[in-house]
Specification:
There is one protein chain. The chain has about 475 residues and is of the alpha+beta class. The chain has 2 domains: about 325 residues, Bira Bifunctional Protein, Domain 2 (BirA Bifunctional Protein, domain 2), CATH 3.30.930.10; about 110 residues, Anticodon-binding domain (Rossmann fold, 3-Layer(aba) Sandwich), CATH 3.40.50.800. The strands form 3 sheets. It has a 9-stranded mixed beta sheet, with helices on both faces. The radius of gyration is 28 Å and the shape is elongated. About 35% of the residues are buried.
Amino acid sequence: MAAVPPTRTISSEKVSLVRERSLVPVGMATILPEAARHVRHLESELLRWFYVSGYDEIILPTFEYLDVLAPGLEPKLAENSYKIIDRTTGRILLLRPDVTAQIARTVAMGMVGARLPLRLSYRATVFRYEPEHVGRDRELFQVGAELIGTDDPAADCEMITLMIESLREIGLQSFKVSLGHVGFFKGLLVCTGLSAEGRKRAEEAAARKDLPRLEEILLQEFVGKRAAHRILDALELCGTAEVLVKGRTLAKGEKPLLQALDRLAGVYETLCASGFQDLLLLDLGEFRGFDYYDGVVFDVFSDGIEVELGGGGRYNHLIGRFGRDLPSTGFGLNVDRLFRSLNLSGIIRPLEPTILVIGSPNTSLEASSICRELRQAGLRVFQRSVAASGQDLIRIAAEVGRQSDISSTVILGTDQSHEDHVLLLQQADAHQTGITTRTPQLQRRTVLKRDLVHTLAVSHRRTS
């Protein structure tokens, strides 16, 4: 285990100086090469699964006009967006703070066509200002999907199933999906007679699961003790099928509340029948932090990550804010949190092996030709030329391979008497050798040039 560096106390003046000199804005990401390869691979695997499930990718603009997108954004989110002035028009631009609102605007404008339902997927970065003390990222990498134009329990189930299957596809096995219905909790708040402002503040507290704050708001709004207990009890109702029974007791015959519970029950029962029962938790206090959700909502959680990996739900009236009312549901996944969850679980999948083709300068043309053939076979290859020959060339090639985490090294020109052969160095499988060391064991053999592509392709499939 690596030693932990000692903690140093830094004066407030020095902290201020460090911040002033920082080259990366707070909350923004720099993803280094090895992690970047894994992140891009993760995104591609998710998008591939969405595609084979019938969801076509859409690429959206990074900037939007504030006045155009504002109808789809709650005021607080619009306020916390990064804004600049468009030099051409003088209008205010904002960096994308929410993908779902962008898709709603695009669909309402008729840009995706009129045929329904629409199944769309995306990979995007969103930007939101968060206070430094909150510790949240301001730049979020998201992958998600939207199902537009249908409103029935089957569509809700399709969306949740797509999320579950995509998480399994990337190797995540240990996670829980929390299911709720926004209409139930919102209905309870309406029944109390809260003011519009009071309801909004109560919804925000519920989204954060902040019971003390919610209790304080109810007290400020002069909500009676029985009604307040009804709301606070609902926020803590979490479990399996028995939650629905308790929810019906809290509903006290109120039709909107019972309709919300019926819809949630139908979705839950279908998902259980599909074999997902062990993954599901019913949460009648499930209340996502965007005001456009108005139906079944869900979040996904995993061990070791204190916040949700992603989530979504039904938003039947969001697209209507842009002029075309269409029922919809969707979800987004936070790629960074997914990557951390997979890493904590020890199931980050190894990426494709890298091949090095190396030789002296007079073999450069031949090396380029071999690299081209290997790349055409779908292998990851890079080329290097060194001023060495014989055993010196082999020693340098082996060292370069170790330093660069190379799985296979092709060495040209080591044996002038057998010009139709190359020398191949490959990392030995510890299971085969029975040896586990910090320095990879190398297997050494000669291979006919005409067999090289086939040999490495077979080796690549075995180690991928």
